[in-house]
Design brief:
Layout lengths: L9 E4 L2 E4 H18 L11 H4 L6 E2 L1 H18 L5 E4 L2 E4 H16 L6 E2 L24
Antiparallel strand pairs: 1-2, 3-6, 4-5
Helix pairs in contact: 3-4
Length: 142
């Protein structure tokens, strides 16, 4: 930028060429993560620019996922069953989709990555005939 006085059209990466718009977006996410975690993220999820600019793409912030988790936990403890969905920013999120958001939240938080997560569609798990108890160890630093 210094030598020709303008931003680059793209950069070449191991993933291929990355456009100027994607660079601005990625650096914004890195700076946001640094601001929240006081550390640089260990990795960044690259979201294709075509997904970012698509009006049908829904981005869910990590704060909203955390708040929705509180709502889901409260519902389960009160009603002794999963809710059919949880509402996040006017979006109705099914439980399979919410589970994916929760998993990505935990992975991101562990790696100091505080970026919005793209909502995708996942199917419901098959019904189990026997109860299954899984103990998951969650680090206390999140």
């Amino acid at each position: 930028m210094d030598s020709n006085g303008r931003a680059p059209d793209y950069i070449t990466t191991s993933l291929g060429n990355m456009g100027y718009e994607s660079l601005v977006y990625i650096f914004a996410q890195v700076l946001r993560s640094y601001q929240v975690a006081k550390a640089l993220p260990n990795f960044i999820r690259i979201v294709p620019w075509s997904v970012v600019v698509n009006n049908n793409t829904t981005f869910i912030t990590m704060d909203k996922i955390k708040n929705a988790a509180d709502t889901v936990q409260s519902y389960i403890e009160t009603n002794h069953q999963l809710p059919e969905h949880v509402t996040i920013s006017q979006s109705t999120i099914t439980m399979p989709n919410f589970l994916k958001l929760e998993v990505l939240y935990l992975i991101n938080a562990k790696e100091n990555l505080f970026q919005s997560i793209v909502l995708k569609d996942y199917n419901t798990a098959p019904t189990l005939t026997k109860a299954l108890l899984v103990v998951i160890s969650v680090p206390q630093t999140i």
